[in-house]
Amino acid sequence: MNHIRRFHEAQQGSSSPLLRIQRFLKTHGLPDPAQVSQIGREVALPEAGVRGAMSFYSDLQQDPNTIRICLGTSCVLAGAKNLFSAARQRTTCRPVYCIGFCDRSPAALRSDERAVALNAEVSVESLLDPSSPEPSRPAIRSVSRQTIVTRRIGRGDFSDLSSARADGAYETLNKARRMKSEDVLSTMEQSGECGSVSNWIKMAPLRRSRCGSEIRRGQRR
Question: Count of domains in the chain?
């Protein structure tokens, strides 16, 4: 959550849609349909986007000053339900779903925003111990010769735009912007990628051809 907030603060400061929605919820509670519509206009988001933010980011409408214990599949298999039952008898806690340490389940977030990964140990004492170290960054492995999507994971915080750019983010986009559209399409076709975005791009010449035909027919009429 803090990473998301820092990203939005870096991009839009206090006017970030996420932060403005959070402030509304803290001040007024859950909005009625008219208020959702008003919030959407203020933050330039559709009503569905506002509702999605409120429902997805549980910390926007629930007290973050509690221990959050993951009850996702991996953590439940590692004993998280028993951990949750034992912990709620000693402190305030609530369930969440995925903290990002599935490989070291069960996992939790303490009220000080420090993560706890118990590595199959169902221990309330370890959960509540303020001296428990935060889990180390996971080792990200890839069978690809060159990692693309995952190459920054585990190497630091790149939520700040300047840090991401310094590490080479957007290089491919900048390269594509310097190319002719025909060359971009040709590169995508030669890559053999089959994703939905790639297919959409591959269909661009056909769409342009059909559009041109419709325009010419309209001009002849």
Answer: 4
CA pair distance 118, 196, nearest whole angstrom: 39
Token readout for 184 is: 């971009």
Residue 7 has pLDDT above 70, yes or no: no
Instruction: Tell whether 39 is covered by a domain.
Output: yes
Assigned domain for 134 exists: no
**Residue 135 · residue 115 · CB < 8 Å:** yes
Q: CA-to-CA distance for 20 and 219, rounded, in angstroms? A: 49
Tell me how far apart the alpha carbons of residues 99 and 79 are, in angstroms, rounded to a whole number: 15
Taking only the tens place, the pLDDT of each residue in 64-77 is 678 889 888 888 99
| Residue 37 maps to a domain | yes
133 belongs to a structural domain: no
CA distances from 103 to 96, 115, 135 (A): 17, 14, 11
pLDDT given for residue 121 in this prediction: 78
Helices (H) and strands (E) in the chain, counts: 12, 4
pTM above 0.70, yes or no: no
Q: Is 89 exposed, middle or buried (0-12, 13-18, 19+ CB in 10 A)?
A: exposed
> Which residues constitute the domain of residue 202?
175-220
User: Could you check whether the bond before residue 33 is cis, i.e. omega within 30 degrees of 0?
Assistant: no
Query: 39-47: which pairs have CB atoms within 8 A and are 24 or more residues apart?
Result: 43/17, 44/17, 45/17
Q: Which two tokens stand for residue 124?
A: 């309330």
